[in-house]
Design a protein that fits this description.
Elements (H helix, E strand, L loop, with lengths): L7 E4 L3 H12 L4 E4 L11 E2 L8 E2 L12 H5 L9 E2 L3 E6 L5 E5 L2 H9 L3 H25 L7 H8 L3 H9 L4 H8 L3 H8 L3 H4 L11 H8 L5 E2 L4 H13 L3 E3 L4 E7 L2 E7 L4 E3 L2 E4 L3 H9 L6 H8 L7 E9 L17 E6 L4 H12 L9 E4 L14 E9 L8 H19 L8 E7 L1 H7 L37 E3 L13 H14 L9
Parallel strand pairs: 1-2, 1-13, 2-9, 6-15, 13-19
Antiparallel strand pairs: 3-4, 5-8, 6-7, 10-11, 11-12, 14-17, 14-18, 15-16, 16-17
Helix pairs in contact: 1-11, 1-17, 3-4, 4-10
Length: 525
């Protein structure tokens, strides 16, 4: 292998690297995907970290774009064993008094649940879906799989209609401002906000991202989970890559992207071996790609300064994974039992103020003393992820990468117990006797596992207006080409961002095939 030549080398075997490799390999290119870890899939990670037989999804889990992802059908992933289940109860917020608010895969059921809290909000919800669902599916979704246009082009395209002008107005507001304008009930607002940090990387006060609210409302019905665990999707992508003629390596950490006279020539591994190709694609983060792998000696000083100024995620995630004898059982009022079959569980985020308080502490580097988290019980929907009769569960609490005045290793076990105690307030059977095993993952553990998730940031760069669309991650990289000839970007730091959407991979494939002047098989009639 040392010294071999390929048409394309792809750094990183996360889902974007695997999708891109499969697209290009099926197009007839000689492709090799390079992975520093033993397991492919990146965030599509499922491991037995508590007890044998208990499968825990450590990172990506709520897959709410599978229904729109071209790669799922283009690469025939079900042929390679990808399977999904679509829970009817999509999300639920449980209140201390035993009531719950649920979003379903059915608009009428969602509106009926909202109406128990506010009839006016139920009517507004239905109106938002009617106004925006077609627009989202015909305009916004295709934009997720196209290189972002210049900002002025977007504005000009919207200015010609009243609906477009309203979209531009929402795009100058924060998500919370839009929710305050549209809805009256605080619990309805909170359950919408619950969908923003994970998997979108957006916080309630991000200016200029108010349009994410109609996006969430229009798409809230479509979240799914991979049967057998998220790694099953990773393995399907791996099989597709191999089936189409691509190659993959593991335990091969790229130390250097080789550049000669402004052109990429290949890569060098940390053990000194090299591979050669006229095209190299990085799916890892911006700073690692240019400051470590390329090196500043090959970069214009002005560009290097912009790379250094790229802003990382404002938050990370503290997670607790449980192996259980029996599933959590929520204490509910009569008629509110559907919370016990909700895919996304909102525990503690009762009102928008709860988000604001926790985010404020995270920004200050404090361990949030208000406990509120995203949780789920995967085995409610897929019993295969635990031994017969047993269950898995997890919670994700927003947290800082570093804690001022403390170390994660010193506080993580106590903090995990506090989080479980909070959950137990709503589900009394979550007792010590019920918990057979527990594993904790801190933000620093995330970075240790995935070095491209710097500071424990799962989105490889802040998802705010200054780093979105044409500005993600920098205007100079908006078309996925870089100042180094033959070097492309295709990771979550690129448009449209993180989550299992494969937008960066599809767009990069488009650009590479355009530059090679070769036909795109996925566009064939």
């Amino acid at each position: 292998m040392d010294g071999a030549t390929y048409d394309v080398l792809i750094i990183g075997a996360g889902h974007n690297g695997l999708v891109l490799g499969a697209y290009l390999a099926k197009a007839g290119l000689k492709v090799c995907v390079l992975e520093r870890r033993l397991e492919v899939g990146g965030g599509l990670s499922t491991e037995e970290i508590t007890l044998p037989g208990f499968a825990h999804n450590l990172h990506s889990y709520f897959h709410d774009t599978i229904n729109i992802m071209p790669a799922y059908t283009d690469l025939e992933l079900e042929r390679f064993n990808a399977r999904y289940c679509h829970p009817p109860v999509q999300a639920g917020l449980i209140l201390p008094d035993g009531r719950s608010l649920c979003f379903y895969d059915d608009l009428d059921k969602t509106c009926a649940s909202i109406a128990r809290f506010s009839k006016r909000d139920a009517e507004t919800w239905r109106e938002v879906v009617a106004n925006y669902r077609e627009f989202i599916s015909t305009v916004i979704v295709p934009a997720l799989y196209s290189a972002p246009p210049q900002p002025s082009e977007q504005i000009m395209a919207m200015e010609g209609s009243a609906e477009g002008m309203e979209w531009l107005r929402l795009g100058r507001m924060t998500p919370l401002e839009v929710l305050d304008e549209w809805f009256e009930n605080e619990h309805v607002k909170a359950l919408v906000l619950h969908h923003l940090p994970i998997p979108r990387g957006i916080l309630p006060d991000y200016a200029g991202l108010g349009t994410v609210v109609p996006l969430v409302i229009s798409q809230v019905e479509y979240a799914q989970i991979a049967r057998g665990g998220s790694h099953i999707t990773a393995h399907a992508l791996w099989r597709a890559l191999l089936r189409f003629g691509g190659e993959i390596t593991s335990l091969t950490h790229v130390e250097r992207i080789l550049v000669d006279d402004g052109k990429v020539t290949g890569v060098r591994f940390e053990d000194g071996r090299t591979l050669h190709a006229p095209i190299v694609v990085s799916t890892v983060d911006l700073k690692q790609t240019f400051l470590k792998m390329v090196g500043e000696d090959h970069l214009d000083p002005g560009f290097a300064k912009k790379v250094k100024g790229h802003r990382l995620d404002e938050f990370s995630v503290f997670s607790v994974h449980l192996a259980l004898r029996e599933a959590p059982k929520f204490r509910t009022q009569p008629g509110y039992d559907d919370i016990n079959q909700s895919l996304r569980l909102n525990i503690g985020f009762d009102r928008p103020e709860d988000f604001i308080d926790i985010v404020a502490q995270v920004r200050l580097g404090k361990l949030p003393d208000k406990l509120a988290f995203i949780a789920s019980v995967p085995t409610w929907f897929d019993p295969s992820q635990a031994p017969p009769g047993c269950h898995t569960a997890f919670l994700w609490q927003l947290a800082p990468y570093e804690i001022k005045g403390a170390k994660w290793d010193d506080v993580k076990d106590d903090y995990a117990k506090r989080c479980i105690a909070k959950w137990r307030e709503f589900a009394p059977n979550l007792t010590d006797d019920n918990i057979m095993g527990m594993a904790v993952q801190t933000p620093q553990d995330i970075e240790g596992r995935f070095i491209n998730m710097a500071k424990g940031g799962p989105f490889m760069g802040r998802t705010n207006l200054a780093q979105m669309e044409h500005f993600r991650p920098l205007p100079e990289l908006a078309e996925f080409r870089t100042p180094i000839e033959g070097l492309y970007m295709a990771g979550a730091c690129m448009h449209p961002g993180g989550g299992i959407i494969a937008g960066p991979a599809v767009i990069a494939a488009e650009m590479i095939m355009d530059d090679l002047k070769r036909p795109k098989w996925w566009e064939a009639d």
